[in-house]
Protein 1
Amino acid sequence: MNLEHLIEEAKQARDKAYVPYSKFAVGAALLTNDGKVYQGCNIENAAYSVANCAERTALFKAYSEGDTSFAALVVTADTNRPVPPCGACRQVISELCPKDMKVILTNLKGDRKELTVEELLPGAFSPEDLNE
Ligand SMILES: O=c1ccn([C@H]2C[C@H](O)[C@@H](CO)O2)c(=O)[nH]1
């Protein structure tokens, strides 16, 4: 699975976004270590606060299917800079993905920013903190 293909999957996911309120469509593509790809889009709701971001949609789809071993995540939107994930998504990514996993942020112009999960949310609150 090359990166160009994973970016294409994220764009395809974005086309499925349900965004009647913000009109801001986001797509994500999550690659598992088995080579499977889970697409995710953002899904909004008339009760605005229950919207689900594209990144979490992809992660929750994979996890709920028993796929829990991840190799890379691409996120894309029609933004001026590579789209930055929100704080809630950073927290979820940080817990469910390896710290050294690559997260590739992109936009429709083709700009890219690649960083690790640790770089996305340095010093994240983690399950270990609950046991201290
Ligand atoms: O990284 C991001 C940032 C925002 N959104 C969604 C949430 C909401 O539906 C819309 C506007 O914030 O974009 C995502 O899906 N991912």
Protein 2
Amino acid sequence: MTARVIDGKAFAANVRAQVAAHVARLKEEQGLTPGLAVVLVGEDPASQVYVRNKGTQTVEAGMASFEHKLPADTSEADLLALVARLNADPKVHGILVQLPLPAHLNSELIINTIDPAKDVDGFHISNVGLLGTGQKSMVPCTPLGCLMMLRDHHGKLAGLNAVVVGRSNIVGKPMAQLLLGDSCTVTIAHSRTKDLAEVCRRADILVAAVGRPEMITGDMVKPGATVIDVGINRIERDGKARLVGDVHYESAAAVAGAITPVPGGVGPMTIACLLANTLTACCRANGLPEPEGLTA
Ligand SMILES: Nc1nc2c(c(=O)[nH]1)N[C@@H](CN(C=O)c1ccc(C(=O)N[C@@H](CCC(=O)O)C(=O)O)cc1)CN2
């Protein structure tokens, strides 16, 4: 079997086009422009690229983009004061603090200072609790993107066996909650899971989010399964820099029914879903109906 390749780049472009169409209607009918504030502390090269792409795609969708670039030695008090200003700013419907933050800053404290209604990353403890109890929340962008692609590929997910490899707060745990919300039978596996290969082979849906290059190999994949690769690992091979996922693509694609590539799979969906969340936050803040198909 050769797997169908799920084209995240094309999927994300479609999500962004839907967001842009909603934004145009909001402007025309309500005189509203959704606004996203992105805060970057320091000069991590990958984060700089992600923040630049977020700003560009926000503007392309017709929304207002507010970028705040702060030096690496910014104090916690100054960062908290900026978050407080953004919380109070009516032009800002979504706030995102780019991670990772420099080590001297308490990420948890800063994220939990964001107004939960503006927490378009879905990392605030209130949103984590709401998602965990099946209530309306802001949903983390990467798992939301994975869910959208899975729903599109499978139609209904109810009753499918899903295995999520990885237990991070940003991807693994919310991914498991979302799959449970769609009535999958969910297993969360991790580095200390006994006989990981056997657990993975039970999965109709296998989500790899462990942060270890090419750890999930074809022998760990059930024939016909859908494999979602969340990993983004920069490695060197044959003297060349390469980007690989947590899945060994060639061996897994030979067994799977469908698979996301790296790059061009889950990654582009992260920013597309950030735009979708900003639109959702703007609609909720103004008591308007939420955009269909762009939320969990
Ligand atoms: N506050 C947040 N910080 C971080 C998040 C997040 O969701 N919120 N996620 C990641 C980084 N990230 C967005 O911030 C992100 C990662 C990857 C991509 C992407 O499009 N990847 C491409 C490859 C790009 C490359 O060459 O590096 C792909 O997979 O095709 C977009 C956004 C950590 N921080």
